[in-house]
Amino acid sequence: MQAHKLTSSQAHKLASSQASKTRLQAVFAMSLGLAMVSLALSCGCQRHTSAATAGSGKSSGRLAFDAGVILAGESSYLCIPFERLALTSTARIASVETSCECVRGSVVSYLAANQSTAQAVRLDFVPEIRSANSKFVPMPLSVQITLEIEGDQNKRDFWIELIHSEIPAVH
User: Fold this and answer.
1) Is 18 helix (H, G, I), strand (E, B) or coil?
2) Are strands 56-59 and 62-71 parallel, antiparallel or unpaired?
3) In the list 55, 110, 133, 148, which could disulfide-bond 94, CB 3.0-4.6 Å?
């Protein structure tokens, strides 16, 4: 086989083509990141205008809990005791639905401070999987949680407010 030498014109064209490819990859990564944010918002994660409220309570006539900062790519969860949801300790939850795929709900039993068994709604925040090139956009979110209670025709709703962020890369 014979080795071929590149002329300076061919080398310039190759370098220019590599630079174009790099720019195209950056634009694609940014577009993908924006598409993921758009998808998250359309799946039920609602952007809210203020940072998550301190503590919990009824804001705007709805029961809301502040989950603080939830880091993308990290596993985390939050448990809310039944009494904080105005549920009796004997309530039987048929289902826990969430407005976003980023949160999964379930019911757990735990040992309370007085050594009795109590129940809580556990909300697992699903780690986000992103490509290494995608740009993350931190934002405050509000996720609706709907509880279906056995023997009760009405569903109970509450919201989890959080700031969805990430740990910045060290340069």
Assistant:
1) helix
2) antiparallel
3) 148
User: Per-residue pLDDT tens for 33-45?
Assistant: 433 444 444 445 6
C-alpha 134: how far from its chain's center? 16
Of 165, 167, 169, 147, the C-alpha closest to 157 is 147
* Residue bearing tokens 């900062």: 69
**pLDDT reading at 53 higher than 50:** no
Edge-to-edge order in the sheet of strand 76-81: 76-81, 117-125, 103-111
Is residue 124 within 8 Å of 67, Cβ to Cβ? Answer: no
Pairing of strands 155-165, 62-71: parallel
Confidence at residue 34, expressed as pLDDT on a 0 to 100 scale: 38
Q: Rounded CA gap, 152 and 160, in Å?
A: 23
Q: Say which residue the tokens 């023997």 belong to.
A: 151
pTM, two decimals, is: 0.65
